[in-house]
Amino acid sequence: FTTGMVAFASMTHALTNPTINLRSGEQRSRWIEGVLNHELGTHFIRSLNNSGQVWAKKRKKYGLEDKNPTEEGLAALHTVLERDGHHLWRAALLYYATWKATQVSFSELFDDLSQFLDSEEDRWDYCLRAKRGLSDSSAPGGLSKDQMYLTGAMQILEERKTVDPCWLYCGKVSLADGKRLCEEQTARVADLKYPRFLADVERYRRLLDEIVVSNNLVDLVDGPAAAALAASQKKGA
């Protein structure tokens, strides 16, 4: 446990001395499983698998694109994968806060977030994340990095019905690169490690389906026709 962290949790020294850092006083018992799925089940295992791949220190040679939307989007999904409700509210609010930060000051953003959060401490955390790195936080502007949690998650959910675990866990690569590297047999797959929640791939896909439904994302990730079908099935149930 440590103080002074912006994030609730982080993974450091993944390959030499794996350590999960938790912000003191911020962890609740029902969140711990999600934190472990996020930090160990996603970041650590992807780093471990990446270290044995031919592209580990040659990303440019293999034409690899930015991994971060997939990296953080996958971690966001795994945080809520086995949590009641599967709500992606944090990823959504991070997206909103970074967008709103481009239009308002720190204090105005703090006030604006009161429509979603009663806790002043929680609102301060979101403002700090959105405005970090700015020399003048009273001016409009923000760090857009936190938007990738939601955008990355949406990209993965669009592919959830056909996604192969290899695409997600062959290394620290984007979903598109993972698919390409596995299909081209560039990725070394024989000794890949997977988190326990991927032991049953069909169950994993069902949980992703539940995330889509619980967050009312059917229209966005599957299209209007799928959303209409889901609504009619729900009505007839």
Summarize the structure.
This protein is mainly α and 237 residues long. 51% of the residues lie in helices and 3% in strands. The protein has 11 helices and 2 strands.
User: What is the N-to-C succession of helices and strands?
Assistant: EEHHHHHHHHHHH
Distance between the termini: 47 Å
Q: Note poorly predicted spans.
A: none
Shape: globular
How many strand segments?
2
Give a quick account of the main beta sheet: strands, pairing sense, barrel closure.
Answer: 2 strands, antiparallel
Strand portion: under 5%
Please state the average pLDDT score. Answer: 89
**Proportion in helices:** 40-55%
* Structural class by sheet pairing and helices: mainly alpha
Radius of gyration: 19 Å
Q: Helix count? A: 11
Strand arrangement within the widest β-sheet reads 1-2
Question: Could you explain the architecture of this structure?
Answer:
- The chain is mostly helical.
- It contains 11 helices and 2 strands, in the order E-E-H-H-H-H-H-H-H-H-H-H-H.
- The longest helix has 19 residues, at 32-50.
